[in-house]
């Protein structure tokens, strides 16, 4: 029975693999990644530097640009090609592996998923116009998350210093740990009740909502439309004049 099940899974995998068209791209020596146009990127932290493009429709591969400009790997649909936007009808996935990436930018509905864990000294993730990022990040020095215009970040971060900038309906959902955290939120949401930081400074404006776990010190400055919920028992607490904050156990 086990043998039959294994053969069935193997056969299904083979069918799925054969339905995908893959093309390896000759692009090397990048440290930054920029992706847009709704393309999905599967990123793997690896010593092997590799870029490959897959789609169930072979013609789609012709419209996907993967090129380096300086140290920036740009991934997008070539909209200058005739009817490119309308012809690309099936999902496009770009697989990228590298061990030296310091910045990832996603925009216009692009999706970035990390297959394992990114381990680097510093990393900046910038999300715009409905783009999303999910995965695990471990930075020994600093991690910066910037989410704008309805974009979203969901994942785990372990870092020395965390900086977040969340605006225009964007959201960030975190777990993990930071020694220091600096949070700016304007019309955004930070759900970090499972994220533990030793020291945090928070600025919240325009109906922002923030939840975070803190150990030692917390400084909060909000307008009258925003609210902060914090967990823990910090020794040092500072609230601005208009701040609304609630501590929960």
Description:
The chain is 8% helix and 61% strand. It is mainly beta. It folds into two domains: 81 residues, Pectate Lyase C-like (3 Solenoid); 133 residues, Pectate Lyase C-like. It has a 17-stranded mixed sheet that branches. The longest helix is centred in the first third of the chain and has 17 residues. It is elongated and about 60 Å long. The N terminus is likely disordered.
Helix content: under 10%
**CATH architectural grouping of the largest domain:** 3 Solenoid
Structural class: mainly beta
Shape descriptor reads elongated
Q: How many separate domains?
A: 2
CATH class of the largest domain: Mainly Beta
Strand content: over 45%
Pfam families: DUF2807
Signal peptide: 1-19
Organism: Flavobacterium arcticum
Domain Putative auto-transporter adhesin head GIN: 29-234
